[in-house]
Amino acid sequence: MVMNRELLINNIAKERQVLEENINKLVHDKIKHIPIANNQLMPYGWRKAAKGRTVWRIIEEVISQNLEKYAQDYGFQSVIPADSEVGVYDFEFQLKSGSKSFVNIKSAVIDGKVNKDDISKAIGLIEFLENNPTSNLYIATFLIRFTEEMTVELVECIVFPTTWIPDVYVNPSNNGNLQSSKYKNLDEMVFRTNGEFLEILKEENRVAKLGGRTKLQKEIKKRIKNGETKKQIAQTIGLSLEQINEML
Known about the structure:
By secondary structure, the protein is of the alpha+beta class. The protein is 40% helix and 23% strand. It contains seven helices and nine strands, in the order αβαββββαββββαααα. The chain has helices at 5-30, 52-69, 122-131, 194-209, 213-225, 230-237, 241-247; strands at 33-35, 76-81, 91-95, 100-109, 117-121, 137-146, 151-161, 169-171, 177-180. The strands form two sheets. A six-stranded mixed β-sheet has the order 1-7-6-4-3-2. Strands 5-9-8 form a three-stranded antiparallel β-sheet.
């Protein structure tokens, strides 16, 4: 039976909330503080090492292994780590009341600078969604703090449906990565089905392959100045007339 749009959205919202609650319970009970060093090894503290990229792989592994080991204790029917290190997800899971879904683990220093961060390669996401049209994909961002005791404190986990990112953007100069600065802002979620997001992502990926919006805007304005019509430009570039108008 094909679910209607409202039911699909509600199912994602409910699963997101349960997943976030279960992960945060696990963090609080088992892995609140991850020891990295000590004051003998690093007598002057973290210094330049107090960055998310310094410890993100360790954090990812600690979280994945604990979720796998304690899955049944925290509302999961199963948790299976990904085989690949470069895929669009880090583990797949199944709640005791749900179907198979997937999670991409991220970490961010609490109160850190807001940037457009890499989520996944756009082409990888497109292939994943085409091959798994009914499976949900989430970003689980662990807010971290570097302590004086040389541990990384997991402050909170925020779970965000990848398909609900509000600022969908594929960076043409960064290996075609989907980027977002709002994937932790739950109050800015844009409710979409997988299919709706897939169409938007394909469009953004197409624009990125053509050099990105800034480059296209310059090219379109130049062509109009040289006498071409918008319809001619759209046909030549491979975009719709609506997309051409949006860029002007």
